[in-house]
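[step 3/7] fold_predict: job queued, chain A
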Amino acid sequence: MFQIGKTIVSEEILQNDFVCNLNACKGACCVGGEYGAPLDDSETDKLVNIYQDVKPFLRPEGIAAIEEHGSFVKGEDGEWETPLVNNNECAYVIFSDNGMAKCGLEAAYEAGATKWKKPISCYLYPVRTREYSEFTAVNYHKWEICDPACALGEELKVPIYKFVKDALIQKFGEDWYRELEEVAAENLR
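[step 4/7] structure written:
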């Protein structure tokens, strides 16, 4: 672990490789698991405010879940998250013709219907952050459904921190990311 500003960062994001391999996993991270996507407090209002713009991009099952439970829900851990359809996939997930899970929020963004791409937790994945009173933890979340992404990242030689560069900059800023790159360069020596 090392510190950058008010973050404590796991060296695993420097030492492990990762590139999403949607052809292999079909977007399983949006479908698997027991919880919705983690949300920052600031993202809950965004979901409420853009719902009508996003709704045309969503599946009927997702719309029903959102309209029953709300645009976001409080998870078992007391944190905000996206609602689920039948305790399975994220309510905002859509599927392509070949069965690949995709983000309906991102589809709305790409179509110009909204200015917000998707929750930062999704954008950062496989990096997970957790806020504590004195610092933010920045960790690698290893999940077997992402083994093909690890293999592709290794083949292409793309460390996690480079794969999620834009998301890390969005979350922590360019200066923070430059410092991360310096730490990574030191680790390679």
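[step 5/7] annotate
The CA atoms of residues 126 and 141 lie 5 Å apart.
The chain has a mean pLDDT of 93.
exit 0
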